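Please, structure for the following, as tokens.
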Amino acid sequence: MRSVLDMAVSAPTHYSIQDHWITLDGARMRYLRDGRGPAFVLVHGLLGYSFSWRYAIPVFAQRATVHAVDMLGVGFSDRPIGLDCCLQASAERLLRFLDAAAIDSCDLLGTSHGGAISMMAASLAPDRIRHLILVAPVNPWSLFGKSTAEFLTRPWVKPVFLGMAPFLEVIHGYLLRRLFGDPKRIRPGTLKGYSAPFSMPGAFRYGISVLNTWEQDLQKLEAALPRIAHIPTLILWGSLDNAVDPASAYKLSQQFRNCQVRMFEGVGHLPYEEVPDEFNRAVVDFLANGHTKF
């Protein structure tokens, strides 16, 4: 298997993180780990995997032990048949990953659907999460994606879509381009890196499974939020995000007692790709102000 460096010609030259593997629920789960210090766990979005954090890990690893996961069903982790991909099941798997990696408590960062997983995981074990960083997280107050979820999970659409999956790599690239506020910010190697796992069998099955319970998951997430209202939280968003409504950032922020919101003007759904220096600085400053060890 090629390393993440081979897939991103623009990755920083000092990027030294290596692959690690654990067995979770009888399947092999991949994650990247680097650094020393307090545990910091990074959770990718629906179209991403640990590759998403190639510009962030070298910065965060100077201050923390960074764990960037490929959730089961995604990236280069195994794709078990029949994997339960509802939000609570995914959150429970993330907590079992913490157990397997011997992480008692951590700072937790999640983007897009990974942000929703992170919030749900925090609600199930709030004593284990020191700080939350949510990057354009899927949330109950954004209606973006609702019609897509309803369409792709219709009984006659789902099998057709999955049957075409081996030929959808071009569409995956198109979807990724749309996530950028300014496509000129797409660095060499980015689309190739994100598309690499989609050549593997079952690559699109996870996404469809997530969409199956989309509405129910958002209702459960809204009900869970009071349990994490006390956790210091940073919300980061791009003003031109067309995947998760930026306007929902402010309603979401009201669910927390200690929450900061940072909007990156002219940026899309992936601020860690478009403006990595600004993104990294915002995260480092937030955590540094939150506890002296970071």
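Confidence is low (pLDDT under 50) at residues 1-14, 147-162. Residues 86 and 259 are 27 Å apart (CA to CA).
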